[in-house]
Specification:
about 450 residues, alpha+beta, Jelly Rolls, 3 domains, ten-stranded mixed sheet, five-stranded antiparallel sheet
Length: about 450
């Protein structure tokens, strides 16, 4: 375990030239669960590094799923010739942890995640050494066999769960080549005839619609939907959501799905676009002991703030629960002025714990950070979630389209937002204590096995 001060985290942001006004934020020391083996510093590589012997495997495991013909990556990286052309750019992107695109700090908070495409320090140094040595090919006979990639238009989570049990499609909508933001809100039948517990969800825009689908939220409608509730949320870059065993997010019988799709026209008309939601179920006899839901948690204490031209802003939100809960996933959300967000727990005894931090947030990639079962944070009654977001409306923010503008809360892409999507399993005291005891028993067993 490594102690990390949030003062240092904010200093890191401040020293980058981003948010100098925030240096006074000092909530104290917090605990970080460090994945030391994966992200610890490694010695410089002095041996010869080649594409065939070293780099090809890294690209196969971490990059080619997107960087292939028809994939969402802007170039293919399947061959040496393709990778060699982009070698310098690849080095820069991996050293800055821009690629693979998973913005989640490596040295703060919980590091044990169910989906984690971040490169290890060893992999980053290997790529850097290869480029610095002139990007040699090496002996092609040493290269791993090419990967036969599935159709890049498929549901990504099908690799783990198989084909979806249900696919819900929005009604078609034609996105024009230009103009202002648009919203499309169709309501469609699901064909689900009995209440089922959801195992996983993936929202997938069409190939043509990827670049214009800003977000696609979905919720339940219908008499048997129990008053509705959120099905899922999609924003650019997100893969999907996984509901842990023991919890149930219910797909209601004979219900409908209401889409809330935000389109952002970008120069090319997209005709008859449809967004698809793939839903995987637990077995029919599975009920789940506790209810899980996905909810939008605000940071701004309501629905209003303004960021001055060439200004910065920090905003926070506090949330507590009437029962013990487990936090299953956390997804920061904002637009082009958001640059960082964190989630902490303020314990009833006054202790502060850092859960997660993204200090290089980008509106180009939204991720639902899904905690591993034994790492998902637990809150008892009296504990509070503290969400903090930092905004930069200056020229130092490379994603800022116009630092001369006032920016306010709003739904347009040019506006800002300040919330996080958080999946919460609502426990009772018995369930809370059971999880605490199970985790303690597993830690004892692991310690005994190491001894």
């Amino acid at each position: 375990m490594q102690l990390v001060s949030i003062d240092r985290l904010i200093t890191r942001v401040v020293m980058s030239g981003t948010l100098a006004v925030l240096a006074t934020f000092t909530p104290g020391q917090v605990t970080a669960q460090q994945s030391a083996a994966r992200f610890a510093a490694v010695a410089p590589i002095e041996r010869e590094v080649t594409f065939a012997g070293d780099v090809a495997e890294i690209l196969q495991q971490n990059c080619q799923v997107c960087h292939q013909p028809g994939g969402i990556g802007p170039m293919s990286l399947l061959t040496y010739q393709e990778a060699r052309r982009w070698a310098a750019r690849i080095k820069t992107q991996v050293e800055q942890r821009e690629m693979p695109p998973y913005q989640y700090d490596t040295d703060v908070g919980i590091q044990d995640l169910k989906y984690d495409p971040r490169l290890s320090e060893q992999d980053i140094q290997t790529i850097a050494a290869w480029v610095e040595q002139g990007a040699p090919e090496g002996d092609p006979a040493l290269a791993p066999p090419p990967v036969v990639w599935p159709d890049p238009t498929r549901f990504r989570m099908a690799d783990q769960f198989g084909p979806p049990d249900v696919i819900v499609r929005s009604d078609p909508y034609t996105v024009p080549a230009g103009g202002q933001d648009r919203w499309w809100q169709p309501v469609v039948d699901t064909g689900i005839t009995g209440n089922r517990c959801i195992r996983a969800i993936e929202t997938k825009p069409s190939v043509a619609g990827r670049s214009v689908t800003h977000h696609a939220n979905s919720s339940w409608r219908g008499a048997e939907a129990g008053g509705g509730g959120q099905l899922s949320e999609y924003a650019l870059g997100k893969i999907g959501e996984i509901i842990p065993e023991g919890a149930c997010r219910t797909a209601p019988a004979n219900g409908q799905v209401a889409f809330d799709i935000h389109y952002w026209p970008k120069d090319v008309e997209v005709a008859n676009d449809q967004v698809e939601i793939g839903i995987w179920f637990y077995p029919e006899d599975y009920t789940g002991a506790y209810r899980q839901n996905l909810t939008l948690y605000f940071l701004n204490g309501g629905r209003g703030f303004d960021i001055a031209p060439h200004g910065t802003l920090m905003t926070q939100g506090f949330h507590q629960f009437n029962t013990p809960v487990r936090i299953d996933s956390w997804q920061p959300h904002g637009h082009t002025r958001l640059v960082a967000m964190s989630m902490q727990i303020l314990r009833a005894n006054g202790r502060t714990e850092n859960v997660s931090m993204v200090s290089n947030w980008s509106a180009l990639w939204h991720h639902s950070h899904i905690y591993a079962d034994d790492a998902a944070p637990l809150l008892n009654v009296g504990d509070k979630l503290l969400l903090t977001g930092w905004y930069d409306n200056t020229e130092n923010n490379k994603y800022n389209p116009d630092p001369d503008q006032w920016v306010s809360i709003g739904d347009r892409t040019a506006d800002e937002m300040s919330h996080a999507w958080i999946a919460v399993t609502h426990l009772d005291e018995e369930g809370y204590q059971e999880i605490v005891e199970q985790r303690a028993a597993r830690r004892r067993l692991a310690s005994e096995q190491q001894d």
